[in-house]
Amino acid sequence: MNPKKIWANMAVNDLERTTAFYTQLGFKPNGTPNNALTSFIIGENDFIIHFFLRDALKPGMKGEIADAQTANEIICTLSAGSKDEVDAWSKEVEPAGGKIVSPPEAFGAGYYGFVFADPDGHRFNVFYMEGL
After folding, report:
1. Containing structural domain, residue 26
2. Domain count for the chain
3. Roughly what angle, to the nearest 10 degrees, separates helices 83-96 and 15-24?
């Protein structure tokens, strides 16, 4: 297999809240939100995350969608350029409406990061690794 592109589809409960959250964090919109989804382009390789209203996404999932507020579904890692950048991100999450799951911390040799959840509970790890 040789896919042309990969993207993520995540379920949310409130498109306006999701759009406001990711816009406030500085993510680049991918088109104009509509009545079923809002979408963002992330990072240098233009990874796309579509945030669909739960009821719009469910038929395509062919099964139940995990409640990200109560169970871990996936963690997306956002690469930071420095420890200072990690710290700066950590200060932006809560004012935008997210939740810090674990504060910035050093772990292992040369690793530094924190975990946050968006308003729907989707988890992200903002991560800096020396030499990366």
Report:
1. 1-65
2. 2
3. 150
Give the chain's mean pLDDT.
Answer: 93
Mean of pLDDT values over 107-130: 93
**Residue 55, domain CATH:** 3.10.180.10
pLDDT-above-90 percentage for the chain: 75
Please state, in angstroms and rounded to a whole number, the distance separating the CA atoms of residues 90 and 86: 6
Ordered strands of the 111-117 beta sheet: 75-79, 123-129, 111-117, 99-107
> Distance of CA 40 to CAs 9, 50, 54, Å?
11, 7, 17
Beta bridge partners, 39, equal 50
Q: What pTM, to 2 d.p., does this model score?
A: 0.88
